[in-house]
Amino acid sequence: MKKNDLVGYLMGLVMFMLLIPGIMWWVSGGTHGGVHPGAGRIACFAVLAVLGIGLSVWSIVYMRLVGRGNPMDAFNHEVAPRTSALMTDGPYRICRNPMLLGVFLYYLGVLVLLWSWKAAVVFVCYFAVMMVQVHSEEQRLEKDFGEAYRQYKARTRKLIPFIW
Fold first, then answer.
1. Helix count and strand count (H, E) for the chain
2. Which of 64, 104, 145, 151 is the most buried (most CB within 10 A)?
3. ∠ CA 48-52-53 to the nearest 5 degrees?
4. Model-level pTM greater than 0.70?
5. CB 120 within 8 A of CB 111
6. Residue 18 CB: number of other CB atoms within 10 A?
7. Range with the poorest average pLDDT among 17-31, 69-83, 117-131
């Protein structure tokens, strides 16, 4: 693994798994912000976290092995080597952005656990920024992979399978 790859993975871990949920926790008042979540909310968080993190990790591994690249490409700024092959199978058969879908599932679990409108505002703001990033990324992929990407885009949902 190259140094740039490691930097990209560490940035992803810190930003997606720790920073955003940490901000959600902080704005909601942390441990002082509310009532103990109870077993049901803790179980819901655990299921969503495992599903979300699992889908994201599967997507990252698949991207490395099949796409021969790294997910850290933010707003057309290459942090680590971009994918050199179009990925349409594995987790990318579920939707065009399975890594992001996994992150959103994890954050939904955090929202259930915190049960805070302030944390929900952070989630919505993050979601909006990521949709701008997805749009930018799709333009790059269309430029890089042309008709093959347009065909994949026509048959595969952007984020939520069977819906959107």
1. 5, 2
2. 104
3. 120
4. yes
5. yes
6. 10
7. 69-83
Give the H or E element holding residue 73: strand 73-74
Phi, psi at residue 78, to the nearest 5°?
A: -80, 110
- Cβ pair 108, 58 in contact under 8 A: no
CA distance between the termini of the chain? 35
- Residue 82 CA to residue 28 CA, distance in Å, equals 36
Higher per-residue confidence, 69 vs 148? 148
Domain ranges of the chain: 37-155
Mean local confidence (pLDDT), 124-130:
94
CA distance 77 to 91: 24
Instruction: Give the separation between CA 70 and CA 80, rounded to whole angstroms.
Output: 6
Burial class (CB in 10 A: 0-12, 13-18, 19+), 66: middle
> Distance (Å, rounded) from C-alpha 45 to C-alpha 64?
28
Question: Count of CB atoms within 10 A of residue 24's CB?
Answer: 22
User: DSSP readout, 43-59?
Assistant: HHHHHHHHHHHHHHHHH
